[in-house]
Specification:
CATH topology of the largest domain: CBS-domain
Helix content: 40-55%
Strand order of the largest sheet: 1-2-3
CATH superfamily of the largest domain: CBS-domain
Strand content: 15-25%
Radius of gyration: 25 Å
CATH class of the largest domain: Alpha Beta
Shape: elongated
Oligomer: single chain
Order of helices and strands: HEHEEHHEHEEHHEEEEHH
Structural class: alpha/beta
Largest sheet: 3 strands, mixed
Amino acid sequence: MIESQKNSRNAQSLAFSAPCAYELMLKVQTIRLDTPVLDVLTLFHSHLHLPAFPVVDEDNQYFGIITRRNYFNIMSRAYARELFARKDLASLLKINPTIFAAPLIVNADDRIDQVMLDFLSLDPEMVFEALPVIDAAKEIAIIKVADMMLQLSESQGTLIDTMEQLSLRLKEEVASAATLQRNLLRPERIELPGIRGLSTLITSSEVGGDFYDYYAVDDRWVVMLVGDVSGHGVAAGTMVSAAKAGVNLLEADKEKQPHKILARLSDTILHTARQSL
């Protein structure tokens, strides 16, 4: 299935000529994990045109990428220079375990139109300004997203429109799913027999697996539920929708026994999961 999708995508790309990553990649200095943090500051100041540097381990093998944005997000904090004055780059992992992560690693022989399609599917908001590139000799470089977009616009202007539409569609679909998920929640102000309060939901992504609900039974009992589906995105949101449907049935049946509530919700969610698979 994956292979057929790749073949289909390649067939669609034959209508125009796009350069490979090695034609645009920049061979820059790599940074070891044991490099002093403040030395990296000097590198960024002396290479203002570079949005990132590749990071290598003690064996000079690719470890990740440090972007200007991620680095200065940490270094702009109060007392950051004093805190990291004698520490190496690896110490930043304690603050942000994913600080060296990149949405994808580019092969030097990859066509940049394919790279951009994959990149936009993983980072539709284009947070990353550069990506790591590794060639056949295992040399590590970077490629600027802006350079790829400029080159593509020069070789095929309509491709840029396609990518923008893809990015916009992804954002719209995620926004619609997020709005739908929000609409599934009860009112923030809780007004139940004997209980008053406020509720809120803050997720780490637009669509997630966090969920809460509540209802009253015969103005005497109150049922309050809090759940968290593993993972994020539309898949987790689907499970939340199933849970909400199950809670609506429980409320209609005036169910208040915890073991029955859990059993029925488990059956509902399991049935939905099987259909999704």
